[in-house]
Amino acid sequence: MIETLISLTIIGFLAGFFFSMPVAGPISILVVSFTLHGHRKRGMMTALGAAIVDFFYIFVAVFGFTKLIIRYKFSIPYILLIGSVFIFYIGYKLWKTHVHFDEEEEKVVLKGRLFAMAKGHHSFLTGFFVNLLNPTLFIGWLVSSFVILSFAASHGINVGGMENIFYQNVEEMNNASNPLITSGHEKDLIKNYKSNPKIKAKQVRPKLFYQILNSTAYSGSVAIGSIFWFYLLSGFLCKHKEKISVKVFNHLIHALSILMVLLGVLLVYQAAQMLNLFHFT
Known about the structure:
single chain; mainly alpha; 2 strands; 74% helix
């Protein structure tokens, strides 16, 4: 029991830490933007809001949330469109942000409504809704958790049968009409899972109490790992941001705003793909 909790905690922490590293995600852009403008606390509140959604998505994935996703999958593209509008708005506000040097006070001054409005609780809600309004994150965490835990189990690490729960949920989404698992690589992982001689996939499923305990340990450590990465990233930026000139600073913020808009476009593209899939199959 203790061995299982330790294994799941370590695996979850590493997953949350390393999967948060790409700086092209909306949460990374917000954390970087807030930190560069001297609002590290607000950046961390954004990361905290996003991490709570990650915790929620992973935790409920264990308890059959996939059935609701499958049943109401028609709503996913519309949620993505709402999320894209939210991200477009943030990108626009970032673009309108400017930094200049105040010669009288001899300090860098920030001008921008996004940072004026983004108090602690607003930053938390921004991170929360940016992730919540992207339900494809649920699918991503479901598949990645299955891959991580099945890999760990195949190498003799005791994960308490949690790999089988994720496998069953992933398989359920794969076998649904208009399946939500579309990657050929992921389909191969599902197909080959039970044929792995190192895995006894058919039988081991934890009892409800242990299932709750194990999923809490795993999803909670994923959230903590994500927050820890952003803590280190924001600390590094705080230490070195004085080396960035005002001109470069403004170019960097504008580049981040463009990247944020492109992420909004990606959400629109994903929504359009889903709407075509639902209408024509």
